[in-house]
Design a protein that fits this description.
By secondary structure, the protein is an alpha/beta fold. The chain contains 25 helices and ten strands. The structure holds iron/sulfur cluster (2 copies).
Length: about 425
């Protein structure tokens, strides 16, 4: 491996070990290699030629949730997430990516049309392979052992995504643009719809970004920076041409891609750099829009709607941790749910999803996630609200494991319910 930029980023690490005290994975692994310091030491070894076993190093770098707790705690402001993602990309360039990742990130994710076709195929396949579970919280595969999917609960894919459900011409123009994201378009279209309808309550014209590419985060986190860059370029070109005053994201992970990673992927020398900075500066989270546009204060008084602190808020690592937007989401929840909202224990603990980590090591991902949901339930929480697609996928699955009565909702669904009481 030869990468001067990566070498410089890794050189900022003083090997102090603070990251070990906060790492989500360390209590599970109890191994130095699971924490940022150990992973950076491996990158150092690869860069200096002391360790040439790139397959093993790739395994160690991928054994991470990219939760960012280490980066936020680091006294030296080491850019751990960027180091790990860049390290994965350098290794992928040398030893290659698995064929399924090349297909998913290179072909499916950048194209809205291919994504819709893939969702339709997945919906049809689910009818054959999966069955509903009694709680109604999702689906289980009929043949779990054969597919290596024992215990996993999947959302039931909708035949029609949110964007496909829009009437012709509906949400086609507007000064404010909604970037709904792949999951809230295809997997949970009701969350896409709730986001759209509640944003419309601001009185502003809302345009839905129909031909968006994927935000690019899954590709970037997996080391496929070329595909992530293609997604970023497509989105920047189209958003710059549409010229909205703001772009609103119901998903914290999509937003972190636009607010932070976009300018890492599109460097100073890139012809789209100016446009990327323009777009990035207009990207905001859903809760900030609901507060700033007056929707929150227009909601009916929630004090008479019952509730006794049963709704908690889960801090997504990207939205609350990286972007610091936990306060805004809580303000929206207070406006929508009043006394039914109360802080839940372990609100800022990672849910254990970690994107590809959940596929790579479902058992560990589940232990972390089950602990999170159980802790909330023991504290009296009956509804976990949040604003990140990965966290919702994970916590609905975990609730089916350990607390089937637990509801996991996007804050937009709660705002939508409040609006319907007006
Ligand atoms: S990443 Fe930061 S916290 Fe961790 S060892 Fe290096 S300097 Fe210390
Ligand atoms: S990103 Fe999270 S899981 Fe990965 S090393 Fe840092 S604290 Fe540990």
């Amino acid at each position: 491996m030869r990468d001067e930029e990566l070498r410089n980023l890794a050189a900022a690490c003083a090997k102090c070990g603070t990251c070990r005290t906060v790492c989500t994975l360390y209590p599970e692994r109890k191994a130095e290699i699971s924490v940022a310091r150990g992973k950076i030491a491996l990158i150092d070894a690869a860069l200096s030629g002391r360790d040439g076993n790139l397959g093993a190093i790739e395994g160690a770098l991928s054994d991470c949730l990219l939760c960012g707790r280490c980066e936020r705690a680091c006294p030296n402001q080491v850019l751990v997430e960027e180091i790990l993602m860049k390290g994965r990309a350098d290794i992928a360039k040398e030893i290659g990516l698995p064929a399924w990742k090349r297909l998913l990130f290179g072909k499916v994710m950048p194209s809205p049309g291919i994504r819709a076709a893939a969702t339709a195929a997945a919906t049809a396949a689910q009818r054959l392979l999966a069955k509903s579970i009694p709680t109604g919280s999702g689906l289980h595969y009929r043949f779990p052992e054969a597919f290596g999917l024992s215990g996993r609960t999947l959302p039931g894919f909708s035949a029609k995504g949110f964007i496909a459900s829009l009437a012709p011409g509906e949400a086609a123009t507007g000064d404010v643009m909604l970037f709904v994201g792949c999951v809230f378009d295809h997997v949970y279209p009701q969350i896409g719809r709730a986001s759209y309808e509640t944003m419309k309550a601001s009185g502003k014209e809302i345009a839905v970004f129909r031909d968006a590419a994927c935000c690019g985060l899954p590709a970037m986190a997996s080391g496929d920076r070329d595909s992530a860059l293609r997604c970023a370029e497509e989105n920047v070109r189209r958003l710059r041409a549409a010229a909205p005053s703001s772009v609103v994201f119901p998903c914290g992970s999509c937003l972190v891609m636009f607010r932070r990673n976009l300018l890492t992927l599109i460097p100073e020398t890139h012809p789209l750099r100016g446009d990327a900075a323009w777009v990035s500066g207009r990207c905001i989270d859903y809760a900030s829009f609901i507060l700033d546009s007056g929707v929150a204060e227009s909601l009916p008084d929630p004090s008479g709607s019952g509730g006794d602190g049963k709704i908690g808020y889960h801090d997504s690592c990207h939205l609350s941790g990286t972007l610091g937007k936990g306060r805004e989401a809580r303000e929206v929840l207070r406006a929508a749910a009043g006394p039914a909202f109360a802080e839940m224990p372990g609100a800022d603990l990672c849910c254990g999803y970690g994107g590809a980590f959940n596929v790579r090591d479902y058992a560990t991902s589940s232990r972390i996630g089950e602990n999170k949901v159980s802790l909330a339930a023991r504290g009296g929480t009956g509804v976990i609200a949040t604003a990140c697609s990965g966290c919702i996928l994970q916590m609905r699955d975990m609730a089916a494991h350990v607390q089937p009565s637990m509801r996991v909702a996007h804050i937009a669904e709660l705002v939508f319910a409040s609006l319907s009481r007006r």
